[in-house]
Every structure is written in C-alpha cells, then in structure tokens.
Amino acid sequence: MSRLRVWVIRVLLAVFCLAGLWVSYHEFRWQWHIEGDIASPYLVWKQVLRDGPGVLLEWRYAQDNWLFSLTLPDFVLLGLTGSSPWVFLHQGWLFFLLNSLLTYAILQFATSRTVAAVVAIAMLFAGPAVIGGVIYLTYPVTHNSSLVWGLACLWLYLLWLRGGRWLWLILGSIALFIGDMSDPWLAAAMVLPIVLGACVAGVLTSGFRLRFAAIAFCAFAVLALARIRLFWLLWFLPGSDFSIGGPSFWLPHLGWIATYTTLMFNVVPIRQPGFGWFPPVWLIVVDCLVIAIVGVWAIGRLLRQWRALRPEAMFIAATAVIGCGGIAAAFVISTVNANLNVGRYISNWFYFIPLAVAIAAFGLRMPRPDWLTRVAVLWCALLVIAGVAAEPHHQTSLPDDIATADTRDLIRFLDQHGLNYGYAPFWATHGAAAEWMTDGRIVIRPVSRSSSGHIVPRIAQTFPSWYESSDVPPGQKQFFYIAKPDEEICTDYAACVALATSEWGEPQRVLKWGDIPVMVWDRPTLTGLPNAAQIAEAPVLQPGVPVRFTRDGIGGALQGRGWSGVEETASWTDAREAVLKIHLPDGWSGPATLVFESSAFPSRTKRNPQTVTVLADGKVLTTWTMPPFKRQTYEVVIPAEIAEKRLIALVLQVPGATRPSDFAYVYDVRPLGVYLMSVTLRR
Asked: What is the 3 state secondary structure string of 615-683?
C-alpha cells in the first residue's frame, strides 16, 4: 500500500471519526436529561456527605445495581464538579465512546487496525434507539457501564494471550468481577460467554491451551465469587430475580428481539421519530433478513475455516457468538415484561455482532476480497447512512436545558406555592431530578403501592431513613403528594386522589399542576402516625376474636406505614418502624391486652433473634426477643390511660430489620422484621 493511500485512508478515518463524534453527541444530548434513575448517584452522594460512608450499606440497590461499580468514580466526579448535573450526564456518552474504543482495541487482535477503526467509527453513527431509550447505550447508569468492565476484561485477557503476563489476567479478572458483582446481567452477557469462548478456543487451537484454561478458570471463579459476594464481604449487594416462563412467553419475546434488532441494526435510511416509535412490519422483515443473512454467512465461514483463525480471533468470535445466543435465549425464556424500553437486555449484541462479522470477513487473511467482505463493507456503510438519516434535524442544534420541561415546570410550581417536602411516584414525576436541580431545596421521596393497597415507601433505590421522622426538616409545616398516575401506584387521577385520601385523610388543600392534583397536608404522611380519624376507619377489635393478616382476613386494614402487605399466611414488616391502627370497642375501660401470633426474620446474622420494642403514645410498653422463624405468641398490655382513648397508634420498632438479599444471592431488599399472623384483643 503506497504512503499516499495510507494517508488518504487515515484522513478519511479521522473525518468520519469526527463526524461520528458529532452525530453521537448531538443524538445523546437530545435523548437524555436528568431524571430519577440518573439522579440516584447524586442522592447517595448527598446522603454519604450527611451520614458518612456507612450508609452505603443501607442503600437499596436496584436489581441491576450499576451504582456499585460507579460509586467511587461517581463520588470523585460529583465532588470535583460541585455535583454538576451537566458534567454527570455526559458520563453516559463517555461510556459509549469507551465501549467503541474497546471494540477497536479488541478487534485489532483479529484484523487490521484499519478494519478495527472502521467498525468502531461506524458504531458512533448509531441511531436514536441505540443511543436513547431502547438500547440505552449513552445512559449514565445502566448496562453500558457494565459493558465497559466486560469489554475491558476481554481486551486484557487478549493481552494475556498474546504476551503471557500474569498482570493482564489478574486485571482482567478484577474488571470482570467488578462488572458482574455490580450487574448480574453481565453473567449471561459476558462472563459465561468468556468462559465458554475460552473453552472452545482452547479445544480448537493449539499452543495456547494452558492460557485459555487459565482464562476459563478465572472467569468461572469470577462467576462463583460474585454469586457468594466475595465470601459475603459485599453482603449488602442483592442478586437478581430471574424466573423462567413457559411457551407463552417465547413467541412474544422473539418478536421483541426482532424489533430491537431492527432498531439496533437498521440499514434503511428512514426517519425514526424517537422513543416509543415502533418500526413498521416491512422494516422489521427487511432488517432481520439482512442481519440473518450476514450473521449466518459469518458464522458459517467461521465454522468452515476455523483452522485459519488465529487463537485470539477464535476466542473473540466464540465469545461473541455465544454471548449473542446466550443473552437472547435468557431473554426469550424469561418472564420479563417485555416492552420498548427493555432492549438494553440485549445491548451486548451491538458490540458482539460486528465483532463476529468483522472477524469472519477480514480475520482469515483471504488473498483478495470475497463476497462476504464486500457485503460486510456495504452493511457497514448502510448502517452509517441509516444512523444519520434517523434524526437529521438533531445534528444542527442542541437542547437548551439539562432537565426536562416537566421537571423545570414542577420546580417553578412548587416554589410558587412554597412547597419543598413531599412524596410522589418515582417514574411519573422523577422527583429526584427536582432535588438535584435545586441542590436539595426541594425534597420528593418516591412511593409505591403495597399488595394490601397502601401507599408505602418505594423499596428500590431508596434509603430507609428517608421515611423516618429524622428525615423531615425541623419546623416543616406542609407536606405534599403529587397524585400523578404511575404504574407502581394508580392508573388515573381519580384513583390516585382516592388512594391518598383513604391513606392520609382529607388534605387541607388540593392544588393543580396542570391537570395533576397536588394534595397538601399540615402533618407528616409516611413519616408520621395516623390521626384519630384514620384509626377510626380501621375495623373494631372484638375481645377474643382473632384478626388475621392474610389475604382472606381483615388485618390489612389495621396496617399503617412500615408493612409489606398481606400474603397468604401473614404480613411482614418492611421497615425499622411499623404502625398498627388499634381501634378498641366503644365504652372500653381499663387496660387492654393484645396477643400477637407471629415469628421473626433473623437480625443481621441467620441465627440472631429479632428485638422488637412496642410503643404507644410515645411510651415503651414492652420489648420482645423473637427467635427467627419460630411461631409464638407475644403479649403487650396497653395501660388504661391509653386504652380508654380507644384509638391507638401502636408502633413496632425493629432496629434489626434485615434484607433477605443480605443472606442469599436474591433480589429482595425489603428490611424484614416481624411476620404477623394474627392479633387478638383480650381484657
């Protein structure tokens, strides 16, 4: 190749790289603003500044708890930038660029640098569905950050294969462990494919078998250590809740994979109006047919000519093919509620499919270009053209504000009415964004609905202390609830208002934020005790008649805050403080005895008893020491001066409430304490 040709290629690659950076940055800025998920690291950072690093153990990590792997860099970034939302949002675009750069670095081991550069640069022209809210590849806190760790591991393992330096193997395993421990999704997307890819390459190639065996062993060890949370040193991180569905899930999930494939690898220059846009059937057929032809052709070439592959190329290709098939199979058989925003579950396809195709087309050292090579080049060119054509008007301007119009309007509305502390659904309002944008001047705690129909603290991505009296600012006079429909609470405005009214009583006033009711009380809601009117609505206890906390009982109507809702046989407390509304019969005189039939969840360790303190009117009535999982009866005597009031808020304090995820690799982050079967009133 003449020097002039080399320089022309380099100049063209540089021009296309700059164009790709321009396109991806503009598309990223149009797709993302500060919202609830993105604001989570800021809220954790502020809590750590207030209470110290120990509160990290209490954060209720999401099932895909990316925050763990990002905690240290996020805190450094927030500290250096003064918690700037502008800087933090750009973290997502940086992850996208890092993954493209790592793809280039990985592909160099199997093809020429030019081919690797072309593939990596083509990725920068991804369409809005890839960068935005379908595949989420520029989102600051999602699987793209996990892929950084996974692809970095793959690159480090390749360095180990080539040079044999143990340092690369160790660093790669550390990166893989951080990614897998932080995000269990990575196990199917990267860890298992690396294990199996190393096994396949070790069997089919010679000369590197000991090194491939070391890779397979280390990756499998990472998988095991993540499942036992590094011998329980990282006990506070939950696992994942993966369940397998029947055949009724398979066909719909295959349909969704076809949709995601179309949005990820579209070759038709057609405008995509943005999130929520479903590609037409003809486009799905065209794009899936193209990817099927290219993919099957590439896999067939790899299988037929695997002897011509270098060991590194064999390892990359095997890992990529297994990774695509494995994550697709896991998605198809799962019970996940598939929709247009869960395409992130197959986001590893965006990197693995180009890797496999590029190796099949250019990694075999063919004497001259053949038809697969030409098709791969044409496919790459069409992907770039279609990516630019998807939203061309985004390339000429940038949005004005880091927050959405709704968030800015909500802040103005609350400031106008002097409201600064309240509750709202997590997804419907993204209240955490308002807190970040006002630097904590406005606080909106997220809530959800329990199975028994109560408004309760949201479990995921919260601190338990947010729902305790210590969280309420001193002298706070107004507490609001934004009654906006949300899939976690209610379906329409009327239902939202009715639910909040039944939970907390009639508000002092109801404001309107556009069409959305904002209910205001002069007393705490989730952090306070029920008033007399609310307790009076609870069923009256009759002496000697057990009230059962089951699905066919009426015990759920006695529950205030701090309960997980009724189950088949009992109800769990899911907070360090739970309230029961005790309504005694008319004319009650003298003390009252309540007999609780219950058991307890272990406290901190699997055999520790749970200590429960029972209070009423601020007075300690008794303390129970409850052995774990042992069904017994416990009594509390309410003194006459309290019992004769007839309407009593009984408080169960459970300071040792513990999450099931602390004991096993599952996703159940409820802080469980008392398992209440029934309560019986006695004279």
From this structure: EECCEEEEEEEECECCCEEEEEEECHHHHCCCEEEEEEECCCCECHHHCCCCCCCCCECEEEEEEEEEC
Helix (DSSP H) and strand (DSSP E) numbers for the chain = 24, 16
- AA letter at 447: V
- CA 386/CA 384 separation, integer angstroms: 6
CA distance 266 to 279: 10
Render pLDDT for 127-175 as a digit per residue (tens, 0 to 9). Answer: 999 999 999 999 998 999 999 999 999 999 999 999 999 999 999 999 9
How does the average pLDDT of the chain come out, rounded? 93
Position 6 confidence tier, pLDDT thresholds 50, 70, 90: confident
Nearest to 264 by CA among 393, 387, 120, 142: 387
Residue 85 backbone phi and psi in degrees, to 5: -65, -35
In Å, the largest CA–CA distance within the chain is: 103
Backbone angles phi, psi at 448, to 5 degrees: -145, -170
Residue with tokens 């506070």: 236
Strands 547-548 and 674-682: antiparallel
Angle between helices 209-227 and 192-204 (to 10 degrees): 160
Concatenated DSSP letters of 205-233: -SS-HHHHHHHHHHHHHHHHHHHTHHHHT
pLDDT at residue number 367: 62
pTM: 0.93
pLDDT at 65: 67
Structure tokens at 558: 């006695």
* Of 180-184, 513-517, 533-537, the least confident: 533-537
Cα angle 387, 388, 389; round to 5: 95
Nearest to 92, CA basis, from 139, 133, 147, 134: 139
C-alpha 237/C-alpha 25 separation (Å) is 33
CA dist 115 and 359 (Å) reads 9
What pLDDT does 366 receive?
65
Tokens found for residue 23: 């396109």
Judge contact between 651 and 469, C-beta under 8 A: no
For 144, the 3-state DSSP assignment is helix
Residue 586 CB-density burial (10 A; 0-12 exposed, 13-18 middle, 19+ buried): exposed
CA–CA separation, 467 vs 456, rounded Å? 9
Angle at 197 between CA 337 and CA 226, to 5 degrees: 60
- Report the 10 Å Cβ neighbour count for 493: 14
Residue 670, C-beta contacts closer than 8 angstroms, at least 6 positions apart: 459, 564, 572, 574, 659, 660
Q: Which helix (H) or strand (E) holds 571?
A: strand 571-573
Question: 4: number of CA atoms within 13 Å, CB side?
Answer: 0
CB atoms within 10 A of CB 207: 8
Q: How long is the chain?
A: 683
The H or E element that residue 1 is part of is none
Residue where the block lists tokens 């450094």? 76
98-135: per-residue pLDDT in tens? 999 999 999 999 999 999 999 999 999 999 999 999 99
Please state, in angstroms and rounded to a whole number, the distance separating the CA atoms of residues 539 and 549.
13
**Phi–psi pair at 612, nearest 5 degrees:** -125, 125
Q: How far apart are the first and last CA of the chain?
A: 99
Provide the phi-psi class of 649: left if phi over 0, else alpha when psi is between -120 and 50, else beta. beta
pLDDT confidence band for 83 (50 / 70 / 90): very high
CA distance 184 to 238: 9
> In whole angstroms, what is the distance from residue 488 CA to residue 36 CA?
14
Q: How far is CA 659 from CA 242, 374, 485, 509, 601, in A?
A: 18, 56, 29, 38, 9
60 within 8 A of 460, measured Cβ to Cβ = yes
